[in-house]
Design goal:
By secondary structure, the protein is an alpha+beta fold. The protein folds into 3 domains: about 130 residues, Immunoglobulin-like (Sandwich), CATH 2.60.40; about 130 residues, Serine Threonine Protein Phosphatase 5, Tetratricopeptide repeat (Alpha Horseshoe), CATH 1.25.40.10; about 160 residues, 60s Ribosomal Protein L30, Chain: A, CATH 3.30.1330. The chain has 23 helices and 16 strands. Strands 4, 5, 6, 7, 9, 10 and 11 form a 7-stranded mixed sheet that branches. Strand 14, helix 5 and strand 15 form a beta-alpha-beta unit. Helix 15 packs parallel to helix 17 and helix 19 runs parallel beside helix 21. The protein is elongated and about 130 Å long. About 35% of the residues are buried.
């Protein structure tokens, strides 16, 4: 029995010796070690590279008395990044490292690297050393993964920031007026009224309209009124009679002149005109009259209440009410304002004739950034224009002058949602994503939401970005859909035929395995040198090179 046990013990020792006769054998048997990586292709997310590396040591590989030092290293154009070594120990090593069984075992480790320029064309490897009996044996370098996907870095970070619009009117609606006055309770037109200065001015205005190439007479009106005294029913009838005699008077004073189509209207009691004249007058207690008008809407009540203020009513009878017994002659005119070409010419030839709105429109037409900024400064200096102050900031930002733009926005008096969005774009340009996100949230506009999607992409929150830009078109909308692996939606979002968009189309084609489309889109994108150079290293096209 004892002899049999000794024979068995010798046999077991022999098997153990055969399994791994010495730690040095671990280096020789390294090719039997299997390594996998998740993801298979490394990806940069928010400036960081994270992956899980699985290493499977086969049966009879790991020496019980050996320590294995493993160092993950990312080799790339321009250098290498090295993690701290990870240590494993055999079953008989009395240390605090992760133990690996000699019967075989799979170990998994998280690897992490900070992105550096050049890592697009990278290679993740494991460098290893076997340590035992105060000796070291180098292991062959084990390749884990090739390339780092940096597609998210294509995001357009300029931010959506539009100029505030001008209120420039290409066609101005104008009116020219004259009027005739009537006696109390009368619809008769006196000869004096037909020759009044008001009528002469109206006749001259019709002549000027005809002679002015920028003016077009749209039509004319005769509008008759009665003063708001004497009862509503009576005044309604009186106003109608005045509209008829007013029309005849209009025909006389405009005979031989161009009037276009003329409409005739009876208004009745002229409470609107009454309120306007009272507000402009120096009548004592006019505020009391205006208060009566605001308190009561019934014409009879209004008249009664005003008559109760006897002294005031006496003044009204001699100053205001006679002016409301009238028929107005109105010419409706469209004035053709300066064209775009004229505005641009005036900028150089006679800029001082341009008002605030014309300056803002002219600035929007100018292409040169310096000239655009100059026009906005002119509008700020001359009119104190807050819109021009904001637009100056936009122009400076679009020119890459971030600090100057920030100063311009700080001078905008009305800190509205558009200013909050602008400050967010400033923060985005400066790389302060937290500050940018706060500004965009405060702004809450569609532009701000699109800009927040850029922040989400840079933070690696692709689902949020894709949701925010869902259904929209544009480069970033397409990129967000690519990042969540939705190529169909990405393709729909791309409407531009520019090189930048064609580069995204090439990525979509590559992920679909369409080699022909990849080549075609890269050829179009390659018209811009930067895209041609990127494609040479981009892991998206690794299998097509």
């Amino acid at each position: 029995m004892k002899k049999s046990f000794q024979i068995l013990a010798v046999a077991v020792l022999g098997i153990a010796a055969a399994a791994c006769a010495s730690p040095a054998k671990m280096a020789e048997m390294a090719e039997n070690v299997k390594v996998t990586c998740e993801p298979e292709v490394l990806e940069v997310v928010a400036g960081e590279i994270d992956a899980t590396v699985s290493v499977t040591y086969p049966d009879k590989y790991f020496h019980p008395k050996a320590i294995l030092e493993v160092t993950p290293v990312l080799l790339y154009d321009g250098g290498e990044a090295e993690m701290k070594p990870i240590y494993y120990q055999g079953e008989k090593v009395k240390d605090n490292y992760k133990a690996v069984s000699s019967k075989g075992q799979t170990v998994r480790e998280k690897v992490h690297f900070e992105y550096a320029e050049g890592m697009e064309n990278a290679r993740l490897v494991l460098r290893g050393k076997v340590i035992a009996r105060n000796q070291r044996w180098e292991l062959p370098i084990k390749k884990v993964a090739d390339g780092c996907n940096t597609t998210y870095m294509l995001v357009e970070k300029d931010g959506e920031l539009a100029y505030k619009p001008d209120n420039y009117q290409e066609v101005l609606v104008q009116t020219e007026e004259g009027q005739i006055l009537y006696g109390i309770n009368s619809a008769d037109v006196s000869g004096k009224e037909l020759n009044s200065q008001s009528i002469k001015d109206f006749q001259a205005a019709l002549d000027e309209i005809k002679a002015n190439g920028r003016k077009t007479l749209v039509g004319t009106e005769v509008v008759a009124y009665a003063s708001p005294d004497g009862g509503e029913k009576l005044n309604t009838k009186l106003s109608e009679q005045r509209s008829k005699t007013g029309e005849k008077a209009f025909d006389k004073v405009t005979k031989g002149k161009e009037t276009g189509e003329t409409s005739v209207k009876s208004v009745g009691q002229d409470w609107e005109g009454f309120q306007e004249l009272v507000s402009k007058s120096n009548i004592e207690d006019k505020d009391l009259i205006l208060r009566v008008l605001s308190m009561y809407s019934d014409p009879a009540v209004r008249e009664s209440e005003i008559k109760n203020i006897s002294e005031v009513y006496t003044s009204l009878k001699s100053t205001v009410l006679p002016e409301l017994r009238r028929a107005r002659f109105i010419a409706n005119v469209e004035y053709q304002n300066y064209s775009s070409e004229e505005l641009l010419a005036l900028v150089d030839e006679n800029i001082d004739v341009l008002d605030e709105e014309a300056l803002l429109r002219a600035a929007s037409l100018v292409k040169e950034p310096a000239k655009k900024a100059e026009l906005y400064k002119k509008a700020i200096d001359k009119y104190g224009s807050d819109r021009a102050q904001f637009n100056l900031g936009v122009a400076l930002l679009h020119s890459g002058k971030v600090s100057e733009a920030e100063k311009a926005f700080s001078k905008v008096k009305e800190k509205d949602a558009e200013v909050e969005n602008a400050l967010g774009v400033i923060a985005l340009n400066e790389g302060d994503l937290d500050a940018a996100a706060k500004y965009f949230k405060k702004a809450g506009t569609d532009e701000a939401k699109a800009n927040q999607a850029v922040v989400d992409i840079l933070r690696g929150e692709y689902e949020s970005a894709a949701q925010a830009l869902s259904g929209k078109t544009g480069f970033n909308a397409a990129l967000a859909q690519i990042l969540v692996d939705n190529p169909e939606a990405a393709e729909k979002a791309l409407t531009c035929k520019c090189p930048r968009s064609n580069y995204l189309r090439a990525i979509i084609a590559a992920r679909r395995g369409d080699a022909e489309a990849v080549a075609d889109c890269l050829e179009k994108a390659g018209k811009v040198k930067a895209f041609a150079e990127r494609a040479e290293k981009d892991v998206e096209f690794a299998q097509y090179r």
